[in-house]
Amino acid sequence: QAPDSFPPLRNEAAVRVLRGRMKGIQGHCNSCYMDAALFSLFSCTSALDSMLFKPFPLCDRNVQSILRDEIVNPLRKTGFVRARSVMHLREQLTEKGQCSSFTNAEKDPEEFLNLIMHQILGIEPLFKLQSEGQEQDCYCYQIFMDKQEDLVVPDVQQLVEHSFLSSDLKLVEIPSCFIIQMPRFGKEYKMFSKIIPSLELDITDLLLDSPRECCVCGDVATLECS
């Protein structure tokens, strides 16, 4: 029997279903890193819906069905996911990842995404980064940057550009999906009190060997100055 499928929430439907008390993914026992990641990946976008249905070569179908039937479908249908459903997923991740702390400890979102996408579902990397001539396959990009005094309440566009510049990074090609982890997580320290979401992300200057306009003459640029 084909599983039920609910499309991602859009516009007025997203507001109607997701706003209010007892909405979203219920937190329990340091699950916030996973709750936030799952909500971001699936509530209002279908970019990664292949994770829910596609039979990848290494795919663990049990984890896939838990993710689809107990988390994503209820989230899109009613706007609410019980903590018990997320704990069910965490128990499976603990079993598959040989890491006993997935059920009780706060983890880095990147660790969770790499485990479920690469080791458990076996999907291809979402994008490639190049630094100093070396290419790296990635599922998630975590923003690293020094504190910028002029960035008090930055937007995502500014943070990504600053991070790529300071780390001398380029995207090898346009990513199929670009998951970005903000520098605003963990219990101890948050670099910014607020970050404004950029509804669109201009990656023109982040792409390797992408034709760009010269800021002096307007022709196609042949040199790039950081």
Automatic annotation (TrEMBL):
Molecular-function GO terms, alphabetical: cysteine-type deubiquitinase activity
Transmembrane segments: none
Organism superkingdom: Eukaryota
GO cellular component: microtubule; spindle
Residues in Peptidase C19 ubiquitin carboxyl-terminal hydrolase domain copies: 24-203
Localisation: Cytoplasm, Cytoskeleton, Spindle
SUPFAM superfamilies: Cysteine proteinases
A Pfam family this chain is assigned to: UCH
Entries under InterPro entries matching the protein: Papain-like_cys_pep_sf (IPR038765), Peptidase_C19_UCH (IPR001394), USP_CS (IPR018200)
Gene Ontology BP terms: protein deubiquitination
KW Ribosomal protein (keyword) present: no
Gene3D superfamilies: Cysteine proteinases
Keywords annotated in UniProt: Cytoplasm, Hydrolase, Microtubule
Name by which UniProt lists this protein: Ubiquitin carboxyl-terminal hydrolase CYLD
